[in-house]
């Protein structure tokens, strides 16, 4: 949750065609890209940034088979052990008749489980607040935040981003985690003065 | 330029006009930042009035019992279940557009998927009302859920299609809602970041779950959408299949047919797309979204309508043929005397259904008519009337005469409270839809931006110019790159 306050050089790009080579060059130069914020999913950007594939779909599969087994075990226990109903003398273990419910529960478990996992992994929830590097990152700007370490020369990074085609560059001290907050109030996880910036 | 993606120039642009990313945001989000128009208020108040009438009708039914409806000895389902199946059918288009068309990589879905998914959710909400209130003693409604209880425990019957329906409809509603809302998160964040007033910042801040647009989050979001689409595709087919099992697993003549599942699913998509057309044609006009919901979108949906309408037509004729060919006297009587005989009490409804669902959609073979907005709007209403009559024909003409002529019912016509309940669900549907169109982005902003550079009109023109200048170089640099 709390990653502490760090310093970032933030470069904003207008066009994803400019952003891609910029990401490549920034990584090649050895700077650490904290994240790139985009208004829509830019295909291939995750690979360009060297992010690993998500395993969310694997989680979905596990939730799905959990649903399948839940349905099958519950129904077969209820209809063969707990309260065997005599329906026209037909077998108690009526597997074909249970396929619809088994299927529905598979889908239900997979979908609900995946969405909850997605929200957990991305820290998404009502009243969760995070630092936003640029308000237009959800509109038309591609915002690259480069983390500054002790060795980073800020002026050098700024010049580098300018050369790469960023239209707006600034330096921000930002909290890296999330906190409970509301968007109509200015709130921070740590007070700015706490670390003496 | 080499990062511009290539799409065949033969394809119509999906976004008309000279747009950039910011313009897309402006166009789609501005309507929800302004005060609603007079028309919006008029429509909204009419919907609320209908809803209140529906609430009163249901109040009558709950207080005085099912006798408030004109159901009788053999017609136990009547208007109520007709309306249920009709609404569920309408609720199929949204998920079809967002899931199946996503898997088939149909770019045009981006313009209509958000509103169609919303329509799905509201339609399923309306559908759910009918079986619930039909229970009569509605305070016992929770008995349909399997939970350990002090009555034995007396479990529900897992072999019954009516219970499968409980699971199918509730799963469908939940999954559609999750799919819709997870897609909404990034767009709600866009509204939040543009908000000027404190209240909007608070509400959209809460609603957008603190979305930032981080690349990792987008990567997971894409994965989530794809898997949810993969799950929803068989789900949407299963839901109407299971609804058709409510009829097909019985031995009532006219219901006892194996063709029901595919025939119901095609009919559901057919009526669902008709409702999407009705709503989209109004929406694009009222909110000025003609650049995003283009004639191309309307034509694409009309193609789906003519396809599914023809499938439905084949199904009607097949079941008629099989009823004769099967030589079951009861089955054949139901088809020949109760339905196809124009002069039988309900013969008119069968032929009305045939005309609306089979004959009239054939007009859409003509491109001129597919691209005619007024005609499409008119047809969308005709199709929905036809599909309502399909369910009416199936339910009423199969049950008004049973095996015992002494219990053949007198002519069934609904009571005012049955009609009121139906009108009430229209009120519920449109109240929800009006609120949705006022407070949520009605088009998926992020998804439009993602296809803008391949399918936007101005970008397509740009590509055409490059292609004309040097076709060979263009092929090497752009087309190869895109694949």
What's the quaternary structure here? heterodimer
Share of helical residues of chain A: 40-55%
CATH architecture of the largest domain in chain A: 2-Layer Sandwich
Number of domains of chain B: 2
The Cα radius of gyration of chain A reads 25 Å
CATH domain fold name of the largest domain in chain A: Alpha-Beta Plaits
Gyration radius over CA of chain B: 24 Å
How would you explain this protein's 3D organization?
The complex is a heterodimer of chains A (197) and B (483). In chain A, helix 3 runs antiparallel to helix 4 (95-121). Chain A folds into 2 domains: 5-41 and 127-195, 2-Layer Sandwich (Alpha-Beta Plaits); 57-121, no CATH class. Chain A has 197 residues and is of the alpha+beta class. Chain A is elongated, with a radius of gyration of 25 Å. The two termini of chain A are 21 Å apart. Chain A has helices at residues 16-28, 45-48, 56-82, 95-121, 154-164; strands spanning 5-13, 32-37, 128-130, 142-148, 168-175, 178-180. Chain B folds into 2 domains: 1-19 and 456-483, no CATH class; 21-455, Formate dehydrogenase/DMSO reductase fold (Up-down Bundle), CATH 1.20.1630.10. Chain B has helices at 21-33, 38-64, 78-90, 93-103, 109-134, 161-194, 198-207, 215-248, 260-286, 295-325, 329-340, 347-359, 367-370, 373-399, 416-439, 445-455, 457-469, 471-482. In chain B, helix 3 packs antiparallel against helix 5 and helix 9 packs antiparallel against helix 14. Chain B is globular, with a radius of gyration of 24 Å. Classes of the chains: A alpha+beta (197), B mainly alpha (483).
Short description:
The complex is a heterodimer of chains A (197) and B (483). Chain A has 5 helices and 6 strands; from the N terminus they run βαβαααββαββ.
